[in-house]
Amino acid sequence: MTPSTAGFPAREDADAGNLTGPGSLSAETVADPRLGSGRRPDAALLRMLAYAEDAVLYVVALLLLVLGSGVLVRSISELLGSEASWPERFVVVLEELLLVLIILEIFVTVLTHLQGGRLQLEPFITVAVIAVVRHILSIVVRLAIPGAPVQSRFGLAELAANAGVAFLLVAALALNRWSESRHSA
Asked: Measured between alpha carbons, how far is 23 from 5 in angstroms, rounded to an integer?
């Protein structure tokens, strides 16, 4: 896709293959499927709302990028400046890096939507898998610290439940990929 002169990505019309951007919209060649037919009486309002949605998505994408960068910088400084033992620092930094991966996966999803792509299930399943693995790591760290036996039993039950959730999410991811490959073939 080629960017328009206004800085917004061009959108491809699924039926006609037309590329349009904010500077080249006309009643006959409205390419954004959210706008419907250019002959509608509310086409101008729909166009304005679509641009507002794009503006909000650009702000969200920028904030996600800034947030991910901030978490990355903080995790590096925590790795270098922490007084904790090396294994504890390693686990904390690993959790932070997984958080950065979650943020970047959402960022890529927003960018894909801004480029006119469809909303896909796979990035959300991937984010869920990463979040569950991150939570499993925090449980393992809590279990490694000596505590009461009741806490250990609860932690083990929580760990088993999260492992089951991770297994189901990976199965859902495999099923989604199998379904997509079957439909594209």
From this structure: 7
Summarize pLDDT for 121-139 with one digit per residue, the tens.
888 999 999 999 988 888 8
DSSP track, the chain? --B-TTSSBPEE-TTT--EE-GGG--SS----TTT--TTSTTHHHHHHHHHHHHHHHHHHHHHHHHHHHHHHHHHHHHHHH--S-HHHHHHHHHHHHHHHHHHHHHHHHHHHHHTTPPP-SHHHHHHHHHHHHHHHHHHHHHHHS---HHHHHHHHHHHHHHHHHHHHHHHHHHHHHHHHHHHH-
- Residue linked to tokens 């960018």: 111
Query: What are 140's two structure tokens?
Result: 């393992």
> What's the pLDDT score for residue 34?
61
Q: How far does the chain reach from its first CA to its final CA, in angstroms?
A: 24
pTM equals 0.66
